[in-house]
Amino acid sequence: MVFKGPKFKKQIALTFDDGPDREFTPQILKILKQKQVPATFFVVGNMVKKYPDMLREIDRDGHTIGNHSFNHPQLTKLKHPETDRQIGQTNQLIYQTIHKSPLLLRPPYGAINDQLEQHFGQKNFKIIQWSVDTRDWAGQSPEQIMATVKREADPGGIILQHCAGGKQLQSTVQVLPGLIDYFRGQGYEFVTVDKLLNIPAYEEYTNKVSQ
Q: Is this structure's pTM higher than 0.90?
């Protein structure tokens, strides 16, 4: 389980959870493309099923895609066969859409235990948490998000944001250009999580998770 990358490189990873959708994801992708910033999107299977075209666009733009379960349950409250279905179905949908099978897994709510970590580790997944929670999902203003990031981010940081989930995410869109400019002004390089940690993002073939 990883919360951040190495401190000896001035790198930072932007991550976006719960998408894709057709409201906020396209706006975020547009900004990232304009600013030439790679990011990591932890997607939910039922949203991939609804918006496969958006998943393809995320991939086409060069971002990394990770697994965030099928419908966002707290995995620690489920039995192993159901957790396997949550992750397996999502990886299957991702693979069917972009022919890539993610190895990066972010559990909904960050809820994980030693048993689940070991279980998914045996299937070659790397559990990715975060070091900075912007709390954009809670309705933080752009100013509050920026203040949180300036206070908590440092080299190797993994920043948690969202690209789907409610009108409050307009703050995420509004703050993103200034957030990117702030880090660049501080001498940071933006990288995807797999590059930050120097680990593979995908398997060549679908994961052997029970469907």
A: yes
